[in-house]
Amino acid sequence: MAQPPILSLENYGLQQGGRWLFEDLDLHIGPRDRLALIGRNGVGKTTLMRLIDDRIEADRGERKTKPGLRIVFLEQEPDFSGFATLMDFALSGDHAPAVHEVESIAGQLGIDMSRPAEIASGGEKRRAAIARALAQDPDLLLLDEPTNHLDLSAIDWLEDWLNRYKGAFVTISHDRTFLKRLTKATLWLDRGHLRRKEVGFGGYEAWEEQVYAEEARAAEKLDAKLKLEAHWLERGVTARRKRNQGRLEKLYQMRAARAAMISEAGTAKLRLANDQEFKSKSVIVAEQVSKSFGDRPIIKNFTLRIQRGDRIGVVGANGAGKTTLLKLLTGELAPDTGTIEISKKLSGVMIDQQRSLMEPDRTVRQVLAEGGDWIDVRGTRKHVQAYLKDFLFDPKIVESKVGVLSGGERSRLLLAREFARTANLLVLDEPTNDLDLETLDLLQEVIADFDGTVLIVSHDRDFLDRTVTITLGLDGTGKVDVVAGGYADWEAKRRQPVVGKTKAAAPSPDRPAPPPAPPRSAKLSYKDKRDYELLPARIEELEAAIARGEEILSDPELYTADPQKFANISKGIENARTEKEAAEERWLELAELVEG
């Protein structure tokens, strides 16, 4: 028999900026619920957490809780100002945690709570915040991106603790592996409405597609505009997912080829039948590289040839030397012994986890296009508002200041700007922090389609499994394991070391299995092929024309001053939209034929 809820929000509504962020929202949390809270950046996930915690007041509705309910909120960015040490911060919880409880959890997490808060790293602060939250013995835990800034060992520890936890939790996370392993039900916040499904995150994507398909069918009776929007909502999600399955298949083929090159000792000396051709494609060559700081070895006897098009993932505990290895491979740091040769043709873009280049007073237009209407995207001119749509933004935010964007939106904007630059090397340091799941899918696409070489430092296991061809695993002693594949392959190698030839690991339960080979594409006519190649550029031109027309019509005095011009531009926008919709429909049909 189901137990009564420990917390309920009934008919909840909240207004922000003159509009309803939530309206008629109902939520019931049971005493052992394990809930994933899913939704795009900006839909109000963290705000909903604050409503649950009673930190903000709703404009309408009723909040009911079990008497004596102990709620603890692990915020994404806790405020450490005013605290001398991490322990001072940890003891300041709403429910007065005991010192010995904090020390016990901190010891298991490997954090010195006497460390001054002012100089603590992001990872140390995150561990301290976790120690404070868990030590308060909560009945309901609210976890906002709990794995941010944690290394893999700390994530494993937190997952184990939550599996044994007797209370309820609601978590916001971009970490698919974390969500799949822990959650039993899903809350989906979408366009102001909250849906609940009694399946964990592993079943979320199938549920999402089902909901969109049902909406598309329901829209059959509505007007053409609503029908088209619902159609693209569902078809767009499905088509993107199909394209990503194709990219995964290609990734697994690349991994298999790479596995054949790794020597039997697994030491990163790579072999190829045509060694001269292999060398000509190499962009970074490290030979017997070692680096120490004082008496501590960071990298020992590391050898690797990185080819053009390789996607390299770097994993390991905090302090194991990931950043040092990255700096060695990009020439920022010189080795103590050994050599590193970097192609003179290599030009890189670094996207760091500090998001240090995003100035809060600049507008989105200034960040992307220096205040203009057009942006050069790797040598191709594109209208800034059309480019915003590529990165899942509403084009209307073009005049918004960076400071009003959410953390996830700022991260997405940074990715949009950096991926526009002409480069053949991308260096990504914790790129998944603050990103929602749809943006992670988009980032996966961009990396897969990038022509150059990619170096990624990340603790996001699922993301690595979906993007990298080689994983470099650091154990903190200076040894670097070189494994063809992603995180799951490296983890399998650590747990079951194999003597002899290195092979790509079989898919684990947490790693998506390679999809079956797609059926042979239907034969396309010459016109079909031409349309498939040329329609994307035409769609961009139409989007730019629509944006220009809408900008002219935004002048409130235009209609009075020149009604004929107003009518002509309005008609031109209508024609452009009609042509654009037909072009999109045609291209998607062709894409499904081409991609099976």
| CATH class bucket of the largest domain | Alpha Beta
CATH superfamily of the largest domain: P-loop containing nucleotide triphosphate hydrolases
Class based on secondary structure composition and strand pairing: alpha/beta
Strand order of the largest sheet: 5-6-7-3-8-9
What's the total count of β strands? 20
Mean pLDDT: 82
Low-confidence stretches: 224-228, 230-234, 263-278, 497-521
Share of residues in helices: 40-55%
Shape: globular
Termini Cα gap: 47 Å
Secondary structure blueprint with pairings:
Layout: E1 7-16, E2 19-29, E3 34-38, H1 45-52, E4 60-65, E5 71-74, H2 86-90, H3 99-109, H4 122-135, E6 140-144, H5 152-164, E7 168-172, H6 176-182, E8 185-190, E9 193-197, H7 204-218, H8 224-259, H9 275-280, E10 282-293, E11 296-307, E12 311-316, H10 322-329, E13 337-342, E14 348-351, H11 364-369, E15 374-377, E16 380-383, H12 384-390, H13 407-420, E17 425-429, H14 437-449, E18 453-457, H15 461-467, E19 470-474, E20 480-484, H16 487-495, H17 526-553, H18 558-561, H19 563-594
Parallel strand pairs: 3-7, 3-8, 5-6, 6-7, 12-18, 12-19, 14-17, 17-18
Antiparallel strand pairs: 1-2, 1-4, 8-9, 10-11, 10-13, 15-16, 19-20
Helix pairs in contact: 3-4, 7-8, 8-14, 17-19
